[in-house]
Amino acid sequence: MHVLLIEPDRMLAEIYRSSLVRAGHTVTPCSSAQAGVLAADQHCPDAVVLELQLIEHSGIEFLYEFRSYKEWQDIPVIVHSQVPSHEFAGNWQMLMQQLTITKYLYKPHASLQNLVAAVNDFAPAVA
Amino acid sequence: MQAQARATDSILSQQLLLNVAEQLKIPLMQIARSAEQGQLTGKTDLTAIQSTADTALRLLDSYALGVRLSLEPQLLQLEPVSVSSVLYDTGQALDAMAKSYGVALELSLHGRYGPVMTHREGLEAALVSLGSALIEALPAMEGPQLTLQLATHRSRYGIVAGLYADTKQFTAKTLQKGRLLQATTRQPLIGLTHTSGAGIFVADAILTAMQLNLTASRHSKLYGFGTVLQPNPQMQLV
Prior knowledge:
The complex is a heterodimer. Chain A is built from 5 helices and 5 strands; from the N terminus they run E-H-E-H-E-H-E-H-E-H. By secondary structure, chain A is α/β, with parallel strands linked by helices.
């Protein structure tokens, strides 16, 4: 399965990429929202792993753009962010429902195994 | 009026601590996930882990120095300092981190400038802190050239020491906006970095404590941040 990994930190991106590859996935890493949209257009991913804190355009802006295209509306998006979910407070319902986030992982507490398991849940690896 | 200023200072110092705490999550995540990866694969990159831990420790040291210099100005002992040698040592301190992030460091020390009277430890800590933040940010930007230049040049205001790259995000406007947003948002320098920008704000705090300024400047065709130091005419006679 093809995973679009939007992660701005180069060192973390490499660690997450290699873990997902080891789990049998193909991964396209991107560091920004703009690069993520372009990569989605080129590779048509089966799942997206998204950090919300990005340079210039945030992960939320990426989600609005991504979900605005009909063909991408059903692609699972796993938010994997250093922003704790409680900071969204009143906007949580909007995040989960309007932008249809499939899962929210708080990055400092999410192990590599948690991330791989979350991706496997929605885009099972080819055996 | 004074009470209001004190309250603002207090909020800003708390915000700086929060920025540092948020920033430290990144190297700690890198260490934790590298260790986990090592357990899963049997291969642990100890050099990368050591370099990452060093980066985190340097940020903490710089933060502590900034606080100490603010609280105890008598610690600010001035000495004649060669700006070129400070930039050289800054490059040495940043080398391992830059390699981990795929950023090339270049020294641009053309011209001969006399020594400046400053607090050497503070100047180097500020430049290393600033450099760490920029190294982390550069690969996350849209199509940047991954080169960071440590440079000095003479301007009409004095001798400028700074770090420069081929990106237009390094502007006075970005810095000014970041300072204003520092107390209210978790990503005050959104056009510049995906992090809390602690390295930049710590550099700002150290330089302020040294009665210097962190400013945006240009070097050749590059954009960057640095500080202006005053040459010491008496030292030039020595």
